[in-house]
Amino acid sequence: MKPPFKTIALLLLAVTISFARQTTIEFPKLTGPYLGQAPTGMISELFAPGIISMGYHEHRMAFSPDGNEIYFTVFSTNPTRAIIMRMQLKNGTWSTPAVASFSDSGMNLHPAFSADGKRIFFSSTRPSNRVSRQKGGADIWFVERQGDSWSLPENLGDAINSDRNESSPFAAEDGTLFFESNRNSDKNDWDIYFSRFANGKYQNAEKLPFPVNTEHEEGGPCVSLDGSFILFNSNRPGTLGEADIYVAFKKMDGTWAEPINLGEKVNSKFYDWAPCLTPDGNYIIFSSYRNIEPIVSEYTSYSETLQKNFGQPKSGFGAFYWLDAKIIAELKPKE
Fold first, then answer.
1. Domains of the chain: residue spans and CATH
2. How many degrees, rounded to 5, is the angle at CA 227 between CA 222 and CA 233?
3. pLDDT in tens, 179-214
4. Any long-range contacts for 91-95 (C-beta under 8 Å, 24+ apart)?
5. DSSP assigned state of 333
6. Would you say the pTM of this structure is higher than 0.85?
7. Are 190 and 198 in contact (CB under 8 A)?
C-alpha cells in the first residue's frame, strides 16, 4: 500500500529540516581585540572576511573607547535600506552581529561614539519634526547609554542639521562634532563641517576651510585622539580611483596643512572611503569597493539573516579593509 501524499510531504519536510540543521554553521567564537583577527601590516587587506566583510556594502565602523563594542553600517545592495549592526565583547567572546536597538526606523547609518562612550551619534532618515528638513533627507541623531542599552534617538537640531543631508558624524576628544553635508550646494557637493560643544550645547556648524574642503567632494571625517590630524575621503584631482583617503596634519597655528593622499598601500582604483581609527590608534579601518571576487561566508547563521533582509551580497560592493596606522607617521612632514 502506498503511503498517503501528506505523509510523504511530512517526511520530506523532516529530512529537509534535519539537513538544514546539519549544514548550518554557527557564528564563530571570536576572542581578543579586533574580533580576534590576526594583526595586519602596512598594506591594506580585508578585515574579518566572511565574518562581517561580506559584500553588503559594509562601512563606517565605530569602536567604543574601551574597544569592547563595535557598530557598523550594512547597506542593502539595491540600495534601499541601511541598518546599524552591533557586536559586543562579553565574557571574552564577541557576540553575533545584531541590529542595534536604535536602528529601528528609516535608513540608519554611520555610527560614531562620543569620547566618553556615553553617546552614539548616527545618521538617519527617520521621521523628524524639524520643519526645515527636506523630505527623505538625513539628519544626525544621537542616543544616550542606559546600562547595556540605549535611549530613544534624539535629533541634534538646527545647529547641526540643515534642510539637506548630514552624515558621517565623528566626535573628537574635545567634544567637537565633525560631519559631512551637501548643504549650500546646487551640485550635490559634499563638504566637511564641524560644530564646537560649548555651554552644554553644540554651536552653529561651520565649514572646514580650504585645503581640507575643495570644490570637489570631501567626507567621512575621523580625527586623531590628540587632534593632530584628520583622515577623510575625497575625489579631488590626484586620486588613484573614484575616491581616496587623505590625511591633513594640523599646523602650529591651528590651521590644516595641505592634505596628503595615503597612497597605494591604502587606496585603490576604486572607491575608498569612511576611515576610522581603532581606539588604541594602532590601525586604520575603512571601506572599499575594490574587491571583485565573491567573499564566501561559512557562517550561515549570520549570512542567511542578511540574505533574508538584503538578498545576495555582490562583488564590487563595500567591505572593510585595514592596515597599520604607522603609515600616517611616515607621511607626516618633517618640521
1. 46-331 (2.120.10.30)
2. 25
3. 999 998 666 689 999 999 999 999 999 999 999 999
4. 92/31, 93/29, 93/30, 93/31, 94/30, 94/31, 94/35, 94/36
5. P
6. yes
7. no
